Amino acid sequence: MGKKNASEVPAYNEMMCELFQALKELGGSGTITEIDDKTIEILNLPVEVQEIMHGNSSKTEVEYRLAWTRSYMKKVGILENSSRGVWSLTTKGREMEYVDPNEIVHKVREMTFLKMKNASTANFEDGDPENDGVDTPEEIQSWREKLKNVLLNLKPDSFERLTQRLLRESGFTQVKVTGKTGDGGIDGTGIVKLNGIISFHMLFQCKRYTGSVAAREIRDFRGAMQGRADKGLFITTGKFTTAAVEEANRPGTSPIDLIDGDELVEKLKDLQLGVTPVNDYDIDEAWFLSI
Q: What share of the chain is helix, strand, coil (3-state, %, to 5)?
C-alpha cells in the first residue's frame, strides 16, 4: 500500500456535519482532543490517513482541518470555546438538528467580504479557508502550538529532565531518570502517594512524537514494567491511537496512565513551567458588525 497524502483527508467543510454530530454525542461540549477523536470515529478514517502530518507542524492534517471546521462554525454562532480549550454548542447550536456546510461557508465568506478592503484579494472558489480571508483558527496560531514545537525540538535528555520536573511539581517523589538504553523503553521511576497514605511505585516513558503512539508501544512498555512497578505513565508530545488507549486500560493488566501533547501543554501551563500568563482581549467581531 502506497503512502497516503493530504488529498485523502476530507476538507474542512466536509467534516462539519460529523463534528456537529460528535459534539451532540459528547453531550454538547468537549476538549479539542475529545471532539477530534469522536469526529474521526464517525468519519471512520483509516489510521494511515489519521497519521498524515500537516507540513512540518506538530498537527496532523486531520487536526489542522478540523481546527478550521470549528473556526467556521464558531463564526456563524454554532460553536463557542472557553479559555481552557473546551468547545461547546451555543444555544443556537443546541437547538439545531443538523448543519448545512454550504450555508456556513457562504455566511462566513459574506462576513469576511464586509471586512475586507479589497475583496478581490481572496479566492472564494478554491475551497481553501486560508484564501477566504478568514483569520487563522486560534488553536493553530496559539501559544499551545508554539509550545508543542519547542517540546519537539528538545534533546531527548532535556525532555526527560522536563518530565522529571513536571512529575516532581505534580507531587511525585523520588523521581529518577534512568538514562539507560535497552531498558524496554523505561525512561524513569518515581513514587506517587495518595492522600499522604498509600504509595504506588511508578515507571514512566516519555517520547517526543509528531504522530500517534500505537497499541504495540503500550504493550511493549507494559512488558518492560512487569514485576517492577504498580503503575505506568506514558507521556508523549503526539497523540495516542484509540487502540493504544484501549490497551492502556485493558482489564486484568497493569494500569498505564496516558498524557498526550495537548494534556502535557495544559499541565505545563497550570504549573507555569516555562509558560508565563499574559493579559489579552478577545475581539467580538459579530458585535461590531451588528452596529
A: 45, 15, 35
